[in-house]
Amino acid sequence: MWKRNLINKFQTSFEKQSEFDGLIISNPVNLTMMTGIRMMFLQTMKNYCVYVVWSSEKKVLICPKTLSSSFANEGWNDNLIVYESCLNPIQKATDILIAEIRDQFDEGTNIGFEGRQLSQKIFSQLTEALPSIRFSDAADFLTNLRQIKNKTELNNLKQAAEIVDHGIAGAIHHIATIQTKSEKFLTEDIRVHSLERGLHISGYNAVSQAISGDKTKKLWANSPKFGIGNETEYREGELLRLEMCGMVNNYWANDARTLLKGKLNNVQDEFFSKIAELRSFACSIIRPGIAAIEIYSSILNKANELGLDMIKEFGFGHGIGLEPVEAPYITASDSTILAENMSLVLQLSAHYIHGEIITSKDTIFITPDGCEIIGWYENWNSPYTTAYTF
Amino acid sequence: MNQNVFLNIEKKLQHVSGYVIKQPSHVSYLTNVLFPYPENSPYSVALVAVPEKNEFVLIVPIDWLDVAKDQKWKNSIISYNLNQGSPDQAFCDAIITCLTNLKIDSENLAIDFPSWTVSEMKRLSAKMNHLKWQDCDELLWRNRMIKSDQEIHLLHQSAQIADRGMIGALNHVEGTTMSSYYYLSEFLERVRVHAIEFGTCGVGHLNISQGAAGKSKITPVQDFSFVSEDNLIRIDYTSQYQGYWNVCSRMLFVGKPDEESEKAFDENQSLITYAQSMLKSGIAIGDFCKRIKEKADLSGISLFDETCFGHGLGLSETEWPLITIDNPESFEKGMVIVLDIQTYGPKGVIIHSTETYAITDRGYRKLSDFKEWNHLYRIDGCRSNH
User: Fold this and answer.
1) Is A98 in the same domain as A235?
2) How many CB atoms lie within 10 A of CB A373?
3) Does one domain contain both B224 and B126?
């Protein structure tokens, strides 16, 4: 049902808001929006090539024969053209795509493509083979479409945010001050506790981290093991950065919290009070009509006023939806005007006194009058402090 | 820095002044630096190289600066951040800055062309006069196709870890089939957890199917369905060790397998055995595939995929050679492949069991050798807790 809702959203937007007679989609994330099925391996396994050709009259999915039943079972009920596995699947699929466009569209037709994702090599083949077709970059249309969520999408994002936040909380309730646990164990616990609460299992970047001590000075500790952790055990008094990315119905949560093994000292208390104040400030200015760049500047000014050493190069947040990081970006370069029903991750990353990177990530929905934080399982204005023992 | 690669490929290019390589696995191959799930990220990386001047520059998003340094990248590095523009704009501008600083002649670049998007090429062309390039993508893939001994060693470890991950998960589920139930997602997560425990550096694709759902290749689990008796289960997953991937698919039966399932599994195994008997350097890949298909046809075994029986493995989950019926090239010593023969089982479910091999002078060396999977694995047993 939710899949059909998303496909309908796309159809309605395409008809009412786009200037295109047809669209070519090849990016795996955009394909998710149009087919309801997320195949993360399409981003890494180049022996599969999938296109959708979309127009008001006809929708065609071009895919390897081996994936056709997967698409059909997950909700694709329009036309399917399949090809056999072969030495050059991209060429094979592109040849079919060219033939389909030639068959379906008249001369002078305006067809949109994904300029930020489509390979120039393929695009050159399309323009050469189809000189009478006008190809236009649909990047802005697709970005706008994905930025503004409908109720179903917001519901998926809300579920994901709630589950992941609860998952982190569930995992850290197993830690006590006098009992130790390895980084790897807690990293796993965060994933498992999120799954227990209904997160949909997925691979690749659907990972967690639980980093402590000096390692928190880096965003990705333990290279080349990413999101795995090692045997480091947490020490009393240390701050732990906890992170989790995961999805529900193909919509992501991207959450970060802090745990302190022991009791907060005054310096820590003051630091986290400032982060909480900065979060409140950010939420007070995020509203429809304000530009992302303006939010960035205001947060940076407020952080300076509070004496926080922010990591401004990451910006202070980004959109979230079918990807854990997507447009708009709360940075010094993004002039996107926020609008109702956008979903963001407010990311406040600051250096603590020894250079540790403390990060807070909250999912935020833009409401008619402002914004609201989504999914807090508990009050995160202070870090979670462990019980002394079980 | 894997400089020999440039020596190998520059002979086949014409007067190249520098390289700009973007495909993440190409970049890792050349630099020995791995990045966190780069294909799933909005950020891009690149290597700008002028081998004859011994100049190599990594272009990375600022978030991954430490990642490169931690992996002993000793050459230059340029980071970009999103305050400078959108991900693709900031990335392209960093490349332009790098090419300008290195005074590289933009009329004689080599790039891995298929990796570059329309908007990236547009931005580069707009900001650089007379941008001209030769495509070195195929040359890089071809170079990567033949593995060094060290790479084969890593691929062997990767194959072993993948199977150990599978076994670790199975050992948890065994003994629970009638009492403390595991649900499918949890079972699959146990595979990831155990692969991690045995040393994997990352898990990619994850898929589990049970019973009739196994008719489709991809079966997202979005509920709390339990592992339940009298069902065939198929687990497909990919994992990597030091960047080198394994593709692991195993068939399991919950309870005592019925005759039909056993027969379907044995038929699949018979094709694997047959394929192994042909596997050696010099045999044409297309012929190899045709003979597997002929054998299946003669034996009355229905193939789910009649034209592809696997692919190469390395720093990508799928790389050359693709083992397809239209591939005119031959197996060569040093190739590492995953053999993946997919057949139909009861109720139309897909049956397959992958094996990883390194091609040698005299035949092959099996790298997925931690356990023999030549019988349908039976998950059974019951106790009050597990």
Assistant:
1) no
2) 16
3) no
Of B205, B214, B254, B257, the residue nearest B234 (C-alpha): B214
Same domain, B98 and B127: yes
Interface of B with A in 114-173 (CB under 8 A): 114-122, 135
Say whether both B244 and B191 belong to one domain: yes
The complex scores an ipTM of 0.96
- A97 and A165 share a domain? no
Contact B202/A226, CB-based, under 8 Å? yes
Instruction: State percent of chain A over pLDDT 70.
Output: 100
Q: What residues of B are in contact with residue A192 (Cβ under 8 Å)? A: 186, 189, 193
CB contact under 8 A, B308 and A86: yes
B226: DSSP letter:
B
> With the C-alpha atoms ordered A145, A146, A147, A152, is the resulting torsion angle positive or negative?
positive
Q: Which residue of A has its CA nearest to B194?
A: A188
Look up the domain containing B251 and give its range: 146-379
Question: Tokens 């340094």 identify what position?
Answer: B69
- Mean of the per-residue pLDDT values of chain B: 95
Domain co-membership, A358 together with A236:
yes
Q: Write the residue in B62, B242, B324 that is nearest to A87 by C-beta.
A: B324
DSSP B319-381: EEEEEETT---B--TT-EEEE---EE-GGG-EE---EEEEE-SSSEEES--SS---S-EEE--
Compute the nearest-CA separation of B2 from chain A (Å). 18
Greater confidence (A234 vs B373) lies with B373
The CATH number assigned to the domain holding A128 equals 3.40.350.10
CATH number of the CATH domain containing A201: 3.90.230.10
Summarised one tens digit per residue, pLDDT across range B116-175 is: 999 999 999 998 878 899 999 999 999 999 999 999 999 999 999 999 999 999 998 887
**Is A389's pLDDT higher than 90?**
no
Domain that holds residue A213: 151-385
Task: Looking at the structure, tell me whether residues B222 and B351 fall in a common domain.
Answer: yes
What residue in A sits closest to B122 (Cα-Cα)? A120
Verify that B156 and B231 share a domain, yes or no.
yes
Phi then psi for residue A162, to 5 deg, are: -65, -45
Inter-chain contact A90–B114, Cβ cutoff 8 Å? yes
For residue B384, what pLDDT is reported?
58
Mutant choice from A3, A26, A49, A66 vs B, greatest count of B C-beta within 10 A: A66
